[in-house]
Batch of 4 targets.
Target 1
Amino acid sequence: MKKMEKAPKILIVDDDSGIRALVIATLEELEDYGVELLTAQNGEDALDIIKTKKPELVILDVTMPGMSGFEVCNTVKNVLGLKAICILLLTAQAQQADRQRGNSVGADYYITKPFQVDELLKVVTKILAIEL
C-alpha cells in the first residue's frame, strides 16, 4: 500500500447522477490512499472546479446539456493550457470519429459506456501511480 505525498484529486463530471454514483463507488477505495473525489454535473461547474482545485484527473462525460465534454476538454488543455491535468473521457459516444475528436481536443484516455468497473479502476490507478 503506497501512500501519496500530495493528496491527488479526481473530478467526476457527468449529468447522470447514477453514473456519478457508480464512478464514485468504483473509486471510493482510493480514498484510503488519500485521493479526494470531487463531482460536477455539468461542464460549466467542472471548469470552475478545475480552475480552483486543479485536480490531477478529470473523468468527463461527453454528452451533457450546455457545454459538452469535448468543449470542457478543449478549454482545459488548449485554452487554459492545463496540459498536466489528465482527462479521461467516459462516454457512450463509441464511434471512431468521436475518439478522434477526443484526441484532437487533448483527451488522454477514452473509455466507452457501459464500462467495466475493473477497467476504470485499473486505468485510474495507473494514471495516479497507485498500487492497490
Note: The chain is about 40% helix and 20% strand.
Target 2
Amino acid sequence: MEGGLGERFARALAEKDFDRVLTLLDPEIEFRGVTPRRFWEADDPQTLIGEVLRVWFKDADEIEALEKLETDAFADRERVGYRFRVRRPDGLFSIEQQLYISERDGRIVWMRSVCSGFRPVPE
C-alpha cells in the first residue's frame, strides 16, 4: 500500500502513469513550478499533464528508477522530494524535484515545484 498523496503522485509520475496522476489532481488545481530555464503554470489537470509533465518527461524518456523519495508534513502542506534516474536519447541523467502540495477531498489542489533539471550521470 502506498503512502500519502505526495508519495502516490511521485510513484505515478515515476511510472509515467498519467492516467493515475490525473486521478490525484483536483479539477481546480493551481500549479506553479520552476525549472532551470523556465517558469511553469497550470490551472487545470489537463494543462498540468499535457503542457508540463509530458514536456518534462517526453515519450522517449525512460524513467529507470525512483532513486529517492522523501515526504514530510509542513503546517498545512505536504513536502515531497524525489529523484529519478532517466535514460534519454542523449544519455543517462538524474533529476530531482521538490514539491509542496495541499489537498482537498483527497486530491492535490495546490502544488509548487522546484526542479534541478536533468543532470548528466556518467555511465
Note: The CA atoms of residues 36 and 95 lie 11 Å apart.
Target 3
Amino acid sequence: MKIIIIEDEPLMAAALKEELTQLGEELEVVQCLDAVETALTYFKKHDLPDLFFSDIQLPDGLSFEIFHQLQSKVPVIFCTAYDEYALDAFKVNGIDYLLKPFDRAALKN
C-alpha cells in the first residue's frame, strides 16, 4: 500500500513514517509533503497514493484544500492536534481522525 504523509512538522512526519514502517512491509511511505502548494505541485507529476495521512493546519492553509482540488477519492487518515475539524474531515474522504500525540496502537486500529 502506497502512503503519502502530509505534515509540516519534520519530526512528526519522521515519527509517523517510522511507525508505519514498523507496522508492516506492505506499507510504503512514498513521500512526505509539508504544505498545500507543495502537495498540489507534487500531484501534477505523480500518481495519487492508496492512502493519505494528513495534518490539517499547514503553513499555507488547511489540507482540505488539497483534497478538494484533487477531487480525490483516496481515503485520508487525519492526524492533528485539533478536534474542531473532525466533521469537515469526513467530507473529504476522511476515514479516521487521530489526535496528536498518538501511538502505534492508534495506528493499528
Note: The mean pLDDT is 90.
Target 4
Amino acid sequence: MERYVFQVQGSAIEPYEVTIQRDRDNLIAYCTCPAGEVGQYCKHRFAILSGNVDKVVRGAENVSRAAALLPGTDVEDAWNLVLEAEARLEAAKRDLAGAKKKLAQSMSS
C-alpha cells in the first residue's frame, strides 16, 4: 500500500490535511476540509491528484508520486468524467463570451 500525506492551505487559518492512499486498484483520497470530511467534492484532493503544488505547504515533493497513483484505480473513470466536463464547461464559457461580444457589436451597429 502506498500512502502520502500533505498539508494544503485552504480558506482556514490552519492548513488542511490531505491523504492519498492506494491499495491495489483502490484509491482513497481524504481531506480534513469541511467538504472532504463529509465526502463531497474537495478542491484540495483534486489539486493533489492534478499534480498542483501551489497551495501545498508540506509534502510538495511527493505530489507527483501521489498523482501517479490514479491510473488503473477505481477512481480513474470518475476522474476522467470530471476532466471532460470541465473541458466542456470551458468551451461553453468561450462560446458564451463570443456570443455576448457578437450581441454587443450588433447592438452598436
Note: The beta strands are 2-8, 16-23, 26-31, 56-58.
